[in-house]
Amino acid sequence: MKSRDSFKNTMRLIVAVGSLFMASHAAANTDIRMHTTNAGSSPYVFSVTLQSVLQKNLPIDVNMTAGMSSTRSTLDAAKGQVDFFIGAPSINQFMSSGTAMFANMEQAPELYKNVRQVMNFPLGPYHIMAAADSGITSLKEIKGKRVFIGPPGGAATLVAMSVIEGATGYQAGRDYKMAKLDWGSGSQAFQDGQVDLYIGPTELPSASIEQLVLLRKVRFLGIPDEAMDTEPMKAVMSLPGRTIMEIPSDIYGDNQVNSEPVKAVGTWVSLGTHKGVDEELVYQVTKAIFENLDTFHNAARFMETINKDNALRQMNGKLHPGALRYYREIGMDVPDSAVPPEAK
Q1: By three-state DSSP, how is residue 152 classified?
Q2: What CATH number has the domain bearing residue 180?
Q3: pTM, 2 dp
Q4: Is 11 in the same domain as 115?
Q5: Residue 232 is part of which domain span?
Q6: What is the mean pLDDT of each run of 10 residues along the chain (344 residues)?
Q7: End-to-end CA distance of the chain
Q8: How far is CA 27 from CA 31, 58, 89, 198, in A?
Q9: Any domain includes 1
Q10: Torsion sign (Cα): 105, 108, 111, 117
Q11: To 5 degrees, how large is the angle CA 62–CA 68–CA 69?
Q12: How many domains does the chain have?
């Protein structure tokens, strides 16, 4: 009997210790939800690197969903449905003002009041690309052609449409056919010759563009100087997160047929969150990013632009109090416009 009782007590102890371990493990790890863009894109590379950094340095499990548009992710964050996401200063502008893709969403400006920012960084230029044997040497030659300029309703698509209109006066549906595809399908369609032109923002040089250039000779098209004075281009360049960049003539190797660099619109992206996320959590996430910059820089060359100097540039939203605390702690000058009402 004593032996049986001793066995029972031992089993109870094992179960109790196991339960205690499982409870402490659950308490020690915080599950966070993150949205990023399509696999292979620059923001996706950043997000995967961030996931690795956070899970290595913090008691965090990152549940990441790829293939999300930044427009949708910003809206989901505003509703508290995702904790961290890839956004953009231009989307902040559209949602806070209820314009562009948010024009028919009456509640968008009110919802945007829930969105908070962690940091910004430059993504790279809009690559405007045509097959070298297509006969397309300028944007004016795409009339009647089928083009891919991004998923319908996306911020990048609106920029591409404005660039085309500014350079040519052409409008989608009237002067050229817009291929309504996601980023992955659009890239594949260009590779297969199903679209005549591809426009997309990405890092410089871009791994995804390099893959396309390996398979066929391409020409990158620039924005004519005279187009910069048109109303569509002025509207594009007035948005936060817009710069002018150049794509060098030899950056993609022998299959790039350009003899001169081309002018392109550059764009910035952001890591966003919402005001319902715990302040200490966002503080620790922000701190982990900037204490592990070498990991980002070693993962991809374009991420060398992720640094403290760029973190608050092109910032047109409110910082999360946790991110604000970190920046103030390290002595950064935070503009009043980035201070959220709950931190004043």
Answers
A1: coil
A2: 3.40.190.10
A3: 0.82
A4: yes
A5: 124-266
A6: 47 45 54 92 93 96 94 96 96 94 95 98 93 94 95 86 94 94 91 94 87 92 92 90 92 94 94 97 98 96 93 96 98 96 88
A7: 69
A8: 10, 13, 35, 48
A9: no
A10: positive
A11: 135
A12: 2
